[in-house]
Amino acid sequence: MKAFGFLSFGHYADVPGSATRTAGDMLKQTIEIAEGADELGVNGAYVRVHHWARQAASPMPLLTAMAARTSRIEVGTGVIDMRYENPFQFAEEAAALDLIADGRIALGVSRGSPETALRGYETFGFRDEEDTERGSVLAREKFDIFLRAIDGERLAPGDPRMVGPGQYLAIEPQSPTLRNHIWWGSGSRATAEETGRKGLNMMSSTLVTEATGQPFHELQREQIELFRSAYREAGHTGTPRVSVSRSVFPLVSDIDRAYFGLRSEENADQVGIIDGYRSTFGKTYAAEPDVLIEQLRQDEAVMAADTLMLTIPNQLGPEYNLHVLEAFAEHVAPALGWKPNTDGPVQGDAI
Predict the structure, then answer these.
(1) How far apart are CA 320 and CA 260, in angstroms?
(2) Of the given ranges (88-102, 115-129, 205-219), which has the lowest mean pLDDT?
(3) How many CB atoms lie within 10 A of CB 281?
(4) 3-state secondary structure (DSSP) of residue 216
(5) Are 149 and 87 in contact (CB under 8 A)?
(6) Which pLDDT belongs to residue 30?
(7) Residue 272 has pLDDT above 80, yes or no
(8) β-pairing, 207-208 with 277-281?
(9) Cβ atoms within 10 A of the Cβ of 157, count?
């Protein structure tokens, strides 16, 4: 592990105990947390993307504001659901964001998680004729178009009266560094290998769509190895990034123990069904800092990845969430190999 950031689901609800009652609260508080995290030396500020729910949904305005209000921290998503995206508009917005942020972005993209709406992407105007249950084919087809667009391929026939006969046009703006900042959210061995073959970066979440009886962190570490092998065998020569997500809470105060002390007793992975797949869910880490250090050192995926995304309880408000990040930065992260954002952009591992 070289770097860590926070991952916010962007929940908001007008319920007792919530410091994040409205969508406006959530958006402004996420920017505030990003600003505070930037000053703490945290490397990344990432948001989940969910539709038809009281959570963060349209990420580009939020990421742009976060990038404009910070100077070193990387901003990104974990992940954008391609089923809901127009690949050309997304390509334009992503390039603009990359230029505004001077390359400080990490756009995680995938087929997305199960949504509260039944095939909600169809209401957005997109239909998958081949995979009517999950929309997986649609997501991958649109993602391939997106990659072609950001690579500058001329895809639109030009008006001969304006650009001459036989001319095709590329989307604008173009950002020459954008391709290096695209990540695919992988939850299985097959998608890990596909991500490597495409020469992308890889995000892995707090679950994998496998249940072999192995510990979660071993399954995830094997996916990382498959990704890197596929990347190398495809002839790519870059330094791809890998991130994993975890719920980690250093218990350094009475309020920490009140919120998460019982979680320290739930020290086990979970197996369940999500989106029709038997899956393994990672455990929550909540303990005194010295215990956390040893637990995370034993987490093979955390140590194999370059970036750890800490899922934060955003409805507890910016002050408490910045306390969690500061406690991790001060008491835990240095022992795992962390380098703060003042040391420069995070680099992947040479393959």
Answers:
(1) 13
(2) 205-219
(3) 17
(4) helix
(5) yes
(6) 98
(7) no
(8) antiparallel
(9) 11
* Predicted structure pTM score: 0.93
Answer for the pair 7, 48: CB distance below 8 angstroms, yes or no. yes
pLDDT in tens, 135-190: 989 999 999 999 999 999 999 999 999 999 999 999 999 999 999 999 999 888 88
Q: How many angstroms separate the Cα of 202 from the Cα of each of 290, 295, 337, 339? A: 29, 23, 20, 20
Q: What angle do CA 311, 179, 73 make, to 5 degrees?
A: 40
User: With 60 as the cut, is the pLDDT of residue 124 above it?
Assistant: yes
The structure tokens listed for 56 are 């963060």
- Rounded CA-CA distance 346/340 in Å is 9
The Cα 231–Cα 240 span in angstroms is 8
CA distance linking residue 338 with residue 250, whole number of Å: 16
Neighbours of 316 (CB within 10 A): 17
Structural tokens at position 92: 């334009």
